[in-house]
User: Which sequence fits this backbone?
């Protein structure tokens, strides 16, 4: 009867040895390769630090003007530009300017990294069913596994700092751009592709002349989602040493500072709204050719 | 008879997981239906042999599912055959390497599609220039060269519009300009005008015939519309269930349909307008009555015959020399609907 009431589990000793074995071998791995991996990420760290310093040290009116100019280029909407300017002025007025610039730096670098890695991966997935079926479960894991779980090996390997934070953000934020690039390319009209084939387009001409341009609205939706998700990771990234708006939030949680948490939290939301509106507006303009009217 | 430009020999296409084993069943006599029921494979094309003359319009006609779109895609190998040959200017397209095939598609053949298949993110000018840019010509020069064709199909002034801003007929003109701009000798048209409404369709047929009288391309035109086939075809091939059931000159098909299926198909056409004097005349050196050219439609010839006192007319060639004689009675017999009593209807 005991078989049915007690689960036939692994012996306690065996289980401990099993876990110890994994921990030890990973520790061994990180001792041997940790430095190499750290050196590999050196340029990334350098770029991130450079951007952060640039944003913090530049005179604030210039930073606001540049951000507003970028918002104008993306959205072509005065309303959004005005909202952006007001939002940044308010953030600065409440003393969150430096933290916001730090967050802006890490979000920009993370998004850039996700685009550079994610779009080619999505293209590969769209090209081959085998790659798609191999990558999809990995993306599922990346999106569902609790972030604290992959923070452990990342910190073991690289310690605490900006780069592990950046990696954690990217792991969480890259899936949408990969998925939507893949989807966008797969949804490209078969007839248009056939026409490209009939005129003798080669692989490159098909990809850059037809597939990517037609998938662009979807790819852009992926970029938008990636930005949103990397902003969502700001607080968790601050736990492993990323400066920015997440850090005060963390402090507010442990000390029950309501106002501090609220202000910084709202600053993150504001950044998210600005990014979202500008990139969505840009995405809509990419599809302008689908509708009549505008001849440009 | 003109030179043969495209020669299709013993072409088979079977869709399914293992076409080669299914191929054996087809050779052992399986029909389209039995192949599908017993082996789960679809017979796309069965033993197609077709000689397409140079500088003529070859129409391939059939109802949906007859394999006509599959057939045209074998000519530029958008579909790989199960067995057979497609020989263009002495070269087997189906044996070409990838590079040779790409070259063939870039320079020798071009295609017009049923649903236009224009690139939605490129303007009319950029779409028309597409084939040229694929050849590696710079965007600017390609657009200069394509401009002539945009004007030729009557789209001057719309260069900077996007396809979505144009009507169906205008979009297909862009498709036509795109196909003509590469100066390919072979023009493949897959139900090119089928998606257009009837008036626009007739317009487009006129444009095509007008262009053809000047350009003399080898055109393969797919359609399910008999009137269209008769109007533009120099040669017609009729497909059913992946098999070719009759090939020939339009006059020939109407006067001598190969089987009940085809006679059923042609029963409602306007025979007086399609049939020409040359099809019913008898050879003669001298004849009395009104003079008629060989390509006069019978309905016009009958009018001329009726208004003259004679019961017959003289058929003359281009230089005015008499080459034959046409009897009113023969013309009327040709126009009369053939006796179809005892024929089982196609739709039960």
Assistant:
């Amino acid at each position: 009867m005991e078989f049915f009431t007690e689960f036939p589990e692994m012996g306690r000793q065996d289980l401990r040895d099993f876990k110890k074995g994994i921990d030890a071998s990973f520790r061994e791995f990180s001792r041997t390769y940790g430095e190499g991996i750290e050196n590999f990420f050196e340029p990334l760290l350098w770029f991130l630090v450079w951007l952060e310093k640039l944003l913090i040290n530049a005179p604030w009116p210039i930073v606001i003007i540049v951000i507003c100019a970028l918002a104008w280029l993306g959205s072509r909407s005065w309303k959004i530009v005005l909202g952006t300017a007001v939002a940044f002025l308010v953030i600065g007025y409440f003393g969150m300017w430096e933290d916001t610039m730090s967050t802006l730096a890490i979000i920009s670098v993370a998004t850039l990294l996700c685009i550079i890695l994610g779009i080619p991966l999505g293209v590969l997935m769209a090209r081959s069913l085998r790659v798609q079926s191999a990558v999809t479960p990995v993306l599922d894991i990346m999106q569902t596994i609790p972030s604290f779980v992959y923070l452990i090996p990342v910190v073991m390997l690289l310690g605490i700092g900006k780069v592990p934070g950046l990696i954690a953000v990217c792991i969480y934020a890259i899936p949408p751009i990969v998925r939507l690039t893949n989807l966008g390319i797969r949804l490209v009209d078969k007839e248009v592709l056939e026409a490209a084939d009939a005129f003798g387009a080669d692989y490159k001409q098909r990809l850059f002349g037809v597939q990517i341009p037609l998938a662009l609205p979807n790819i852009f939706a992926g970029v938008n989602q990636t930005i949103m998700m990397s902003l969502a990771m700001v607080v968790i990234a601050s736990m492993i040493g990323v400066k920015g708006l997440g850090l005060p939030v963390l402090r507010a949680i442990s000390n029950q500072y309501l106002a501090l948490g609220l202000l910084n939290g709202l600053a993150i939301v504001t950044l998210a709204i600005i990014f979202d509106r500008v990139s969505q507006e840009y995405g809509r303009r990419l599809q302008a050719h689908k509708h009549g009217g505008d001849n440009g | 008879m003109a030179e043969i430009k495209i020669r299709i020999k013993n072409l088979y296409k079977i869709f399914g997981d293992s076409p080669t084993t299914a191929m054996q069943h087809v050779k052992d006599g399986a029909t389209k239906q039995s192949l599908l029921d017993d082996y789960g494979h679809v017979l796309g094309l069965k033993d197609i042999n077709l000689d397409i003359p140079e500088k003529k319009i070859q129409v391939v006609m059939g109802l949906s599912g007859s394999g006509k779109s599959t057939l045209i895609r074998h000519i530029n190998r958008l579909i790989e055959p199960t067995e057979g040959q497609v020989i263009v200017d002495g070269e087997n397209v189906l044996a070409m390497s990838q590079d040779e095939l790409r070259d063939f598609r870039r320079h020798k053949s071009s295609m017009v599609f049923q649903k236009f298949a224009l690139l939605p993110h490129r303007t009319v000018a950029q779409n028309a220039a597409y084939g040229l840019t694929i050849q590696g010509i710079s965007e600017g020069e390609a657009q200069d060269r394509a401009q002539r064709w945009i004007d030729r199909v009557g789209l001057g002034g719309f260069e900077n519009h996007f396809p979505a801003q144009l009507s169906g007929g205008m979009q297909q003109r862009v498709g036509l300009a795109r196909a003509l701009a590469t100066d390919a000798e072979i023009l493949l048209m897959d139900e090119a005008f089928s998606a257009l409404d009837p008036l626009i369709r007739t317009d487009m047929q006129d444009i095509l015939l007008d262009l053809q009288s000047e350009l003399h391309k080898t055109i393969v035109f797919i359609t399910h519309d008999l009137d269209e086939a008769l109007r533009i075809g120099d040669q017609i091939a009729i497909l059913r269930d992946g098999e070719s059931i009759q090939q020939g000159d339009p006059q020939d098909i109407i006067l001598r349909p190969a089987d009940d299926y085809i006679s059923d198909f042609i029963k409602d056409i306007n025979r007086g307008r399609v049939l020409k004097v040359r099809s019913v005349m008898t050879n003669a050196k001298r004849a009395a009555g009104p003079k008629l050219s060989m390509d006069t439609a019978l309905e016009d010839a009958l009018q001329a015959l009726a208004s003259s006192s004679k019961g017959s007319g003289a058929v003359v060639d281009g230089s005015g020399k008499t080459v034959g004689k046409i009897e009113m009675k023969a013309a009327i017999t040709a126009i009369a609907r053939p006796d179809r009593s005892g024929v089982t209807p196609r739709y039960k």
